[in-house]
Please model this.
Amino acid sequence: ASRGNGTLRQGPSPARQNARMETLTQEIAAVAARLVVEDGLDYGSAKRHAGRQLGVPPRTALPDNTLVEAAVREHLALFHADTQPGELVALRRLALQWMERLAEFRPHLSGAVWHGTATRLSDIYLQLFCDDPKSAEITLIDHGVDYQARATTGFNGASVDALSLSAPCPELGEPVGVHLMIHDHDELRGALRAGADGRAPRGDRQALLRRMAAEAPVP
Model:
């Protein structure tokens, strides 16, 4: 509160401040969702870009991924309902092909292609669970697949090897990035635990086939 001309002024009430923060969080999520869908940004980059676009203070709390994903689904329904379902199916079919090729490494699909929010700008993320961490790389070499190896953060926060390649997608008429995250076989059980939202964070080939069948439009 401040005093001027003998009058006591009260600042915004806590309820009003909370409402403003909630509105700002939703605005950031909406802008981030547009950047994810239209520019192919990952959630973290999209949220940071959205904050800068809206001119929010640097330490402003950003929306969590659950809120951004909900905004992504809303954006897709509003602006891409006629194209996104077909693009998603094309990406899932390509993912199935690679899961079949790499079946010995127990591939599990994650990311936007698994969760159903992918567009033609999305990459495919497969987690492989290997007895020998170099075995998947050797398989790519044996089949003449060009790839780039790098280190990235795995689903449990630890650093893991990632093999990135470009795969043709005839249905989309363009190549798609496929990223293979290499995990130890012993990590598979923990990888299948439901997330905080109760959803499966990833699924194997059979789980993906079931999901595609369940989400297929009724003729």
Observations:
- The mean pLDDT is 90.
- The longest strand covers residues 159-169.
